[in-house]
Design goal:
This protein has a six-stranded parallel beta sheet with strand order 2-1-3-4-5-6, with helices on both faces. Helix 3 (62-72) links the parallel strand 3 (50-54) and strand 4. The chain has helices at 12-24, 36-46, 62-72, 87-95, 107-119, 127-138, 150-160, 165-172, 176-190, 195-204; strands spanning 4-8, 28-33, 50-54, 77-82, 100-103, 124-125. Helix 2 runs parallel beside helix 3 (62-72) and helix 7 (150-160) crosses helix 9. The protein has two domains: 4-138, Response regulator (Rossmann fold, 3-Layer(aba) Sandwich), CATH 3.40.50; 150-204, Arc Repressor Mutant, subunit A (Orthogonal Bundle), CATH 1.10.10.10. The protein is globular. It is of the alpha/beta class.
Length: 210
């Protein structure tokens, strides 16, 4: 039986290119998603072996989608595609349950290998990534911890994408009061009290792409 994969990227052309690459290797793309929430829904419906997703998707970025997958579909192996090779991103991804971390510049050479490796129960990092993580470890570089919870990061991403509190509540399936509470708490934690500064923080920390 071929390896069953869900592709998640908000660029159709990118998905088409990756799909062609995987199908040439005998793998089956069972669904394509344009944002992280859609990817989670497809994972629950199709129970794929692997979800390959861009780190910078709207609605729910790849990092948070990986956390959701670990909760709702623990058997599914998430692989992130990213341009970020900084140790703090890699560390956050591994903590989120990501099993493969592939640099976009190396997709053609690394992605198929990453899929085979994570299906064997191993973690795959693009070669350049492995070097930067080891260098940070050897130099004892402190990797900053994120003060926000996963739900607060989801709320922050939606706010940064221009969603109203009512929209946030609907998308997360919570009450408006709960969404307001998440917003107030994350602003307090970050000591940021206006939307423009929240957007800048979200961009700086890779929650949204510009």
């Amino acid at each position: 039986m071929p390896t069953r994969i869900i592709l998640a990227d908000d660029h159709v052309i990118v998905r088409q290119g990756i799909k062609s690459l995987l199908e040439r290797e005998g793998m089956q793309v069972v669904a394509e998603a344009s944002d992280g929430r859609e990817a989670i829904g497809y994972a629950e419906s199709f129970s794929p072996d692997v979800v390959v997703m861009d780190i910078g998707m709207p609605m729910l970025n790849g990092m948070e989608a990986a956390r959701e997958l670990a909760r709702c579909c623990p058997k599914v192996k998430p692989i992130l595609l990213t341009q970020h090779d900084e140790p703090q991103y890699v560390s956050a991804a591994l903590k989120a349950g990501v099993k493969g971390y592939v640099l976009k510049s190396q997709i053609s050479g690394d992605l198929v290998q990453a899929i085979h490796q994570v299906l064997r129960g191993q973690v795959y990092l693009s070669p350049g990534i492995s070097g930067s993580v080891m260098a940070a470890y050897k130099s004892k570089t402190e990797i900053a911890t994120d003060p926000l919870t996963s739900r607060e990061r989801q709320v922050l991403q939606l706010i940064a994408e221009g969603k109203s509190t009512k929209d946030v509540a609907a998308l997360l399936g919570v009450s408006v009061k709960t969404a307001e509470s998440h917003r107030s708490r994350l602003m307090q934690k970050l000591d940021i009290h206006e939307t423009a500064s929240l957007v800048r923080y979200a961009v700086k920390h890779g929650l949204v792409q510009i």
